[in-house]
Amino acid sequence: MMVDRVPVTLLVNGQPHQAEVEPRLLLVHLLRDVLGLTGTNVGCDTTSCGACTVLLDGESVKSCTVLAAQANARSVTTIEGLATPAGELHPMQRAFREHHALQCGYCTPGMVMAAVSLVQENPSPTEQDVRRGLEGNLCRCTGYHNIVEAVLAGARVHPTPSASGGPDQAQHSPAEHSPEQQSQGHQTQ
Amino acid sequence: MFPNPFSYARPSSLPEALALLAQYRDDAKVLAGGQSLIPLLKLRLAAPTAILDIGALESLNYTRVDSDDLVVGALTRYCDLERSDVVRRECPALGHVSSMVGDPQVRHRGTIGGSLAHADPASDLPALLLALDGSVLVTNKRRSRLVSAQDFFHGFLTTDLADDEIVTEIRIPRARRSWRYEKFARRAQEWAVIGVVVIRDEQTGTIRIGLVNAGSTPLRAHTVERALADGADPASAARLVVGDMQPSADVAAGVEYRQHLAVTLLERILRELDVAA
Lengths: 189, 277
Hints:
heterodimer; A: five-stranded mixed beta sheet; 7 helices; 31% helix; B: 277 residues; 33% helix
């Protein structure tokens, strides 16, 4: 049946949420305007720049090009979901800080989420892999050099997707709501 | 930016989806991964009153071998095609060309069926399917029918799909092939200014050539194929591709530049594949 309001149930950063939304509502606006998670930026709004990148079931997507309704029964991770509740940064966030991988910072949330997804799919990327893997994210400040350095460094300490309680996991992972855990099937419904 | 209002359904089975489509027909637009459709909705270049979201039909995401064909479910995403062992074994060109589409985020959402149904001449997979001599299974409430890729693309963003039909499966004949895909884009993640794919069947020696963004539909370079079959050398065969194209001029390139690119990329591929003079 066609409806004009659609119920959406999803996990965001490990927390269950429910909302009844207009079908045309985009995922990025659900995150920012309904749930108040404004860490995800809207950049180009035309599927080009990647500023709005989040993880959907552990995989990077451009949340300006996903309907909120399409995220029903799925798990979303935003930049707010990477650090531990105690505030310990995710290894990729730390690597961005340590390698000065940002200037204005506008692309950074999307860049970090794309990097997390990239490293989950390819735990030991080469520089070329990183450059190709970030093709969907534009940065107008840095010239990318330090971003690539940061992703390579972040990859070296990144908890592997299959690790559930391995040494990396214990040391680095935000235990309650890491994207790795969500991608292993914690879904609502 | 956001789309015009529309009503929405997210059926959980194919029969349910087809029943809804039979009811709404032209008023409904089918949504798969949405990487072409949602941008169009946001730009309001498309403003359907109803969206039929088939994204929950997970049974349409598969790659397998069925006797003489590699068979791919319509909702198989580009990233699935890149990762699939069956694709890597049976038709590595399909995995490679999929890896050249858009960017990782787009490949995590976009589907092969969506790409074919959208029929953008600048998309990578439609021209590949032509060169692979593949076909498209389309299904409505009552029956399915198999349409060869050659007959599937009618015009700009227009296909053989009736308004009550959904692309459900793609079939590619199994064969031992050598192949190359060359795509020229101005920047990473952008559409091809021109793309050229060449597929050679190693058993029969038959060469099929697909052209991306060389006209209003994905195209075959029939003239070049015939010349090669008659023994033309790579350089003179490649020059004939100009007659197989009806390129348009846009902000990325003029007509002459597109022709030049197609000749250059095609000649390069033919030499790499060592197509004998």
